[in-house]
């Protein structure tokens, strides 16, 4: 074989190898995990609906994408996982996202999570203060000396519970604090081992609904001049109301809320996040959210770019500009 033929043969082999490598690369799925919360809360089922919607296959989803919802300890744990690379994305409360990105509040002295980026604001997250019916708790001030679960360290709920207590002149040492997720907290409440617990999440949430039906509960109002001052001091809070009979035999209850947000890292490719965001707001995803969870109907394109305490991911921002919700 002369030199020119040998060179052409080598080129053909190299070309074939490169083509095979490209095909193999194209067939390798991209994984996009969504850190959620405890399985009894709202993050987990909503995360499952979104993960299923954006996963590729057939006529739906992002081609070549495999997405799963992963149970976790909530907002702070999800941001830590994104920062550490063990999660591609996660749900968080808007207050926790702001603190992380700015290095303030909960993240004071811990450094900024500079690369935290927003995919979408999802829905209001209501602060529930659930009490036993016979516990005699009519206001936050009545929690003094009571057995109260404020959720686990690493959750957004624990941060907000401390803020709410402080607004009413209470410290954590003024209550008999427990650190339970809403499922176990509900069990303890039912058994008489707990007087009340905090939970931040979209209503109705399964664990509280089940508890209200099986044992009966009261929702403690979070309202009054203390709340007016709290909202002035912490602008990521807003007034909210749990409608009557959202939970069995529970009257309309004034409270406050933050926003649930879906966040990721700026390290995630722009094109991938653009495609994910586009599928997130497709008609098929809309139908799945509406049918899949009571909170799904509150997840709207119009609200997706509200509560912008952190920057949008460039891929998401591109979609929102194309969709006309950002100018």
From TrEMBL:
The keyword Signal applies. Gene3D superfamilies: Periplasmic binding protein-like II. Residues 1-26 form the signal peptide. SUPFAM superfamilies: Periplasmic binding protein-like II. Keywords: Signal. It comes from the Bacteria. It comes from Rhizobium laguerreae. This is TAXI family TRAP transporter solute-binding subunit. The lineage of its organism: Bacteria, Pseudomonadati, Pseudomonadota, Alphaproteobacteria, Hyphomicrobiales. InterPro entries: TRAP_TAXI.
């Amino acid at each position: 074989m002369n030199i020119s033929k040998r060179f052409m043969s080598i080129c053909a082999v190299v070309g074939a190898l490169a083509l095979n490598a490209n095909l193999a690369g194209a067939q390798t799925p991209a994984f996009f995990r969504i850190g959620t919360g405890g399985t009894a809360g709202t993050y987990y089922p909503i995360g499952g609906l979104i993960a299923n919607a954006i996963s590729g296959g057939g006529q739906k989803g992002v081609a070549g994408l495999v997405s799963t919802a992963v149970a976790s300890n909530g907002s702070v744990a999800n941001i830590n996982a994104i920062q550490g690379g063990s999660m591609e994305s996660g749900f968080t409360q808007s207050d926790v996202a702001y603190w992380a990105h700015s290095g303030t509040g909960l993240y004071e002295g811990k450094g900024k999570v500079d690369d935290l980026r927003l995919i979408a604001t999802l829905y209001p997250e209501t602060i529930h203060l659930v009490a036993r019916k016979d516990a005699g708790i009519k206001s936050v001030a009545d929690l003094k000396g009571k057995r109260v679960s404020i959720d686990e360290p690493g959750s957004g709920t624990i941060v907000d519970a401390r803020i709410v207590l402080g607004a009413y002149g209470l410290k954590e040492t003024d209550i008999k604090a427990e650190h339970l997720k809403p499922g176990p907290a509900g069990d303890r409440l039912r058994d008489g081992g707990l007087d009340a617990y905090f939970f931040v999440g979209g209503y109705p949430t399964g664990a509280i609904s089940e508890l209200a039906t099986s044992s009966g509960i009261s929702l403690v109002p979070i309202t009054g001049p203390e709340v007016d001052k709290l909202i002035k001091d912490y602008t990521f809070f807003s007034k909210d109301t749990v409608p009557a009979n959202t939970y069995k035999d529970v009257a309309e209850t004034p409270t406050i809320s933050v926003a649930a947000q879906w966040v990721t890292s700026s390290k995630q490719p722009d094109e991938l996040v653009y495609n994910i965001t586009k599928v997130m707001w497709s008609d098929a995803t809309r139908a799945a959210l509406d049918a899949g969870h009571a909170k799904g109907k509150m997840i709207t394109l119009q609200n997706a770019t509200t509560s912008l305490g952190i920057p949008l991911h460039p891929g998401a921002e591109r979609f929102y500009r194309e969709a006309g919700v950002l100018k």
